[in-house]
């Protein structure tokens, strides 16, 4: 009677294990298969090969690094050890849970192929969207740069003439009572000239004056100006400059890039906050990092970063970062950034090149 009860219980457990939709394998310490349910047989049975208990587990799968690593962990560590792997011969992604026991290991394999494909398609969609945003940014930069390159110099010539006459008139005795007005007009003309300079910086065919120079020296030349601006706004600035090799740079352009990034960082922070500027080597690259302690960037801005006329500031036309991206591209450099609620860091990675 007892034997019949045990036999019946064995049959019930066998039926339960066979009905599980996940693959179940029990291996001994030598990786011999002690037990396999129906799903495991369907997954790991190869053509022209007899499957059965006592066979080694390894012949029924292609060697997968993740699986080998997981099995290695499972034979040493106690408890349930989850890991993922891809089984090439059945083209399936499986989530594997390993349950070690004193005489072997139990593997429960759950098919996550649909989920992985969905995740991959979602990642590809995100990459496509990012590519489209980058192409939009480049198209706008190129179009704007080409347009301004054509008309920028034509605008500057009459502006220079007007500015010169305003200076002459302002020095005349009969016009001294209008000096404040003349100074205001000259100041506004200088603002227009500054805007034109920024527009011209977007031109992709701008001629560079490349010379071997030190990024650190350019940063330190700007440092007194930034320290003064930060002090006036009750903010702090710190420079952490490591030794870096010389680069081929247009020093005027790199100065403009660094100033734009530093001023953006200062404007993003409240009083008492710290701006940190770093330079260091990362492999063969030389990196400039500008870190603020602002509130971080909104997603709406992140998606359009570097596109002309995108800004959250009042009285700003939104060219600063667009100019930075253009300058970086002309120097074979790449701009990336990290942002969160505790601040934003912009990284400019210069790839070392020779003359």
Structure overview:
Residues 47-52, 59-70 and 72-78 have low confidence and may be disordered. Helices cover 47% and strands 23% of the residues. The chain is an alpha+beta fold and 355 residues long. It has three domains: 2-111, PAS domain (Beta-Lactamase, 2-Layer Sandwich), CATH 3.30.450.20; 131-200, Helix Hairpins (Orthogonal Bundle); 211-351, Histidine kinase-like ATPase, C-terminal domain (Heat Shock Protein 90, 2-Layer Sandwich), CATH 3.30.565. Strand 9 (274-282) and strand 10 form a beta hairpin. The strands form three sheets. A five-stranded antiparallel sheet has the order 2-1-5-4-3, with helices on both faces. The protein has a five-stranded mixed sheet with strand order 7-9-10-12-11. Its EC number is 2.7.13.3.
Rg over CA atoms, rounded to whole Å, is 33 Å
User: SSE order in H/E notation?
Assistant: HEEHHEEEHHEHEEHEEHHEE
CATH architecture descriptor of the largest domain: 2-Layer Sandwich
Quote the distance from N terminus to C terminus.
93 Å
Task: Report the CATH topology name of the largest domain.
Answer: Heat Shock Protein 90
- CATH class placement of the largest domain: Alpha Beta
Got a strand count?
12
Largest sheet: 5 strands, antiparallel
Helix tally equals 9
Task: State the secondary-structure class.
Answer: alpha+beta
Q: Tell the overall outline.
A: elongated
Domain Histidine kinase: 150-354
Organism: Formimonas warabiya
InterPro entries: HATPase_C_sf (IPR036890), HATPase_dom (IPR003594), His_kinase_dom (IPR005467), HisK_dim/P_dom (IPR003661), HisK_dim/P_sf (IPR036097)
Keywords: ATP-binding, Kinase, Nucleotide-binding, Transferase, Two-component regulatory system
